[in-house]
């Protein structure tokens, strides 16, 4: 055995770790996804259980967009295309984009890649308000707006509650937020369950359950503007904060050393997340899995830089939800499946496959 | 750029952990902060890189109060390597280094050609340009520290603050990190665990115990057996490094409580540490 100490040149040590992450270029990906989204929206509008032909669909869309005319006997199919499917497809895209963007924000906020909008207890809070309307007819004076308003207001109330409970002298810490949010989630869910349990109207309980698993069946043009405005505003804000989100993901100390007030940024993200979750949940119910999965899939494709993630994730989420909604209403037509069931059926296997195929790191070498 | 810390006290959760600190670092000097665990090293440094606000006193850079500055302006003058460097997110090395340009950017923080160039130079300076495309989480401890130093250099600061940058590194990596820090020619304030490394690499040492500075000066003057017994509770002999002549310590055993100084092994004169 040679004992002479050989001064080896300090070459970079070989690694058995994951191969260098492969990353798709963002601008072509965004362009491609935009085209796919438009195509998906067309499919969402064109396909359905009531046989309206493609030529009719195109004509009605043209008529609707340009203010053209239709024959009197076409009013029924026109209404299906223009008043039901079109807003519904648009709303699905808005909700998918919103949930994905909020998922990215929440994961950076609590610096945990396994977080999603539900972790903060906000959507389960919204569910309490929504079910109060569905089961007991609360806020009857507001008519068709009762459900949305009640869900949105209770999302904000839930946020205030979680915020107050999680706050300490040092501000919001990620762990306390997750723990408080999770505890509140169970609390709110218990209230919702109790409400469903005690409600004597079977049909109402069914629609409450439908709402809990997410559904876009109530979509109309009326529900699009507020949700779209909230999602677009939040997305713009998040894109402008992308650099700060990167720093926050590295930890509060690093953020501070880079001249970023982590505490203020976290408050900002919390409010953005709550407002968007409230606005989205108010029109679509509690759609799970999108906010968790889409940010992950996006990171597998383009890496962790929030500038890249926030450009791609909302588009991916929008495309996903348009198709999920389409499937939910055609697979067992005329019965509609809850959206949450379809997201899980598609999402779980896709997610596991992607995760196993690529050298994706969740942190901690997992 | 000169650091002047005067009468600095820092509170965490209502407890005053650091009291009336006075510390000066002349421009371009490498100043070490040593002390037992829990003595307040990190708390002091966290206040210097603005993760904490002072309860009293000031940190001034060339006379300007750091905590009165805009945070981004401060970050253009002072960069830091905090102790925690963990993240859940798989950033590439290039992305981690690019974060160093944040204090110089507005809006989305889109990197300009100049930013990219500065980051590439910073990576080259720490000898890590070949790592640019790698995932930060897949790096070894030493590689991570080099990349974080590159991030700090990309900030183009005048002052560098490091909290135990050699933790968990093997000896070659420790020496490498300290050489990189020295080569940066910045004014450096660093906490160090290893007293022998501190003795060799620092121009000046401050010893902190119980949240107060108990001694300061050149390593040779500060690292006396008396001080080591008192502050660290160990009995140590001083020897000279055969080549550099720097003071080095050989540790014997735990010192009995309240132990007094013993004669230094090499007979070097022991200068009394400056009074707190």
From TrEMBL, chain A:
Residues 1-10 have a biased composition (Low complexity). It is a multi-pass membrane protein. Pfam families: FecCD. Signal peptide: none annotated. It is found in: Cell membrane. The chain crosses the membrane at residues 29-48, 89-110, 117-139, 145-165, 177-199, 219-240, 269-294, 335-355. InterPro entries: ABC_BtuC-like (IPR037294), ABC_transptr_permease_BtuC (IPR000522). CDD domains: TM_ABC_iron-siderophores_like (cd06550). Keywords: Cell membrane, Membrane, Transmembrane, Transmembrane helix, Transport. Residues 11-21 have a biased composition (Pro residues). Residues 1-21 are annotated as: Disordered. The keyword DNA repair does not apply. Belongs to the binding-protein-dependent transport system permease family. FecCD subfamily. This is FecCD family ABC transporter permease. It comes from Streptomyces celluloflavus.
């Amino acid at each position: 055995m040679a004992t002479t100490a050989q001064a080896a040149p300090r070459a970079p040590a070989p690694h058995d770790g994951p191969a260098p992450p492969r990353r798709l270029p963002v601008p072509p990906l965004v362009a491609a996804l935009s085209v796919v989204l438009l195509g998906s929206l067309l499919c969402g509008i064109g396909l359905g259980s009531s046989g309206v032909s493609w030529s009719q669909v195109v004509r009605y869309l043209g008529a609707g967009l340009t203010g053209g005319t239709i024959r009197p006997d076409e009013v029924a199919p026109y209404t299906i295309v223009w008043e039901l499917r079109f807003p519904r497809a648009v709303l699905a895209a808005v909700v998918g984009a919103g949930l994905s963007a909020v998922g990215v924000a929440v994961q950076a906020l609590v610096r945990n890649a396994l977080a999603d909008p539900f972790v903060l207890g906000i959507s389960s809070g919204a569910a309490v308000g929504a079910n109060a309307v569905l089961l007991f007819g609360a806020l009857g004076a507001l008519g068709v707006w009762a459900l949305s308003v009640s869900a949105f207001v209770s999302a904000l109330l839930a946020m205030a509650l979680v915020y107050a409970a999680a706050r300490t002298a040092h501000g919001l810490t990620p762990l306390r937020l997750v723990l408080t949010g999770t505890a509140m989630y169970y609390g709110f869910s218990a209230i919702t369950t109790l409400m469903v349990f005690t409600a004597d109207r079977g049909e109402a309980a069914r629609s409450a359950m439908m709402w809990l698993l997410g559904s876009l069946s109530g979509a109309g043009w009326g529900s699009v503007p507020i949700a779209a405005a909230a999602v677009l505003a939040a997305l713009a804000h998040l894109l402008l904060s992308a650099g700060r989100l990167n720093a926050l993901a590295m930890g509060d100390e690093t953020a501070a050393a880079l001249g970023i007030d982590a505490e203020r940024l976290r408050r900002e993200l919390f409010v953005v997340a709550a407002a968007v979750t409230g606005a989205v949940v108010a029109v679509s119910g509690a759609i799970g899995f999108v906010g968790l999965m889409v940010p992950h899939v996006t990171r597998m494709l383009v890496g962790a830089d929030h500038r890249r993630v926030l450009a791609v994730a909302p588009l991916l989420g929008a495309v996903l939800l348009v198709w999920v909604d389409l499937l939910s209403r055609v697979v067992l037509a005329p019965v509609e499946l809850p959206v949450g069931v379809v997201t899980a059926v598609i999402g779980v296997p896709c997610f596991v496959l992607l995760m196993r195929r690529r050298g994706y790191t969740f942190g901690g070498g997992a | 750029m000169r650091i002047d810390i005067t009468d600095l006290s820092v509170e965490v959760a209502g407890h005053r952990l650091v009291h009336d600190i006075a510390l000066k670092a002349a421009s371009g000097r490498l100043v070490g902060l040593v002390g037992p665990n829990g003595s307040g090293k990190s708390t002091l440094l966290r206040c210097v890189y603005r993760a904490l606000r002072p309860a009293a006193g000031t940190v001034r850079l060339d006379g300007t109060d750091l905590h009165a500055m805009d945070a981004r302006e401060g970050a253009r003058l002072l960069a830091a390597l905090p102790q925690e460097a963990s993240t859940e997110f798989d950033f590439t090395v290039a992305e981690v280094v690019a974060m160093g340009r944040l204090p110089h950017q507005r809006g989305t923080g889109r990197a300009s050609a100049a930013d990219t160039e500065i980051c590439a130079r910073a990576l080259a300076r720490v000898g890590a340009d070949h790592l640019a495309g790698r995932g930060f989480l897949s790096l070894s401890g030493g590689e991570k520290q080099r990349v974080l130093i590159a991030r700090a250099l990309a900030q183009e600061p005048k002052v560098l603050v490091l909290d135990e940058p050699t933790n968990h590194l093997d000896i070659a990596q420790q020496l490498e990190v300290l050489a990189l820090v020295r080569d940066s020619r910045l004014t450096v304030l660093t906490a160090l665990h290893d007293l022998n490394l501190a003795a060799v690499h620092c121009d000046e040492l401050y010893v902190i115990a119980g949240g107060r500075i108990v001694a300061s000066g050149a390593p040779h003057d500060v690292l006396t057996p008396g001080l080591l017994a008192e502050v660290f509770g160990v009995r140590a002999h001083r020897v000279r490094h055969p080549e550099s002549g720097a003071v080095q310590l050989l540790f014997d055993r735990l010192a009995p409580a309240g132990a007094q100084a013993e004669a230094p092994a090499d007979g070097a004169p022991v200068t009394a540490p400056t009074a707190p």
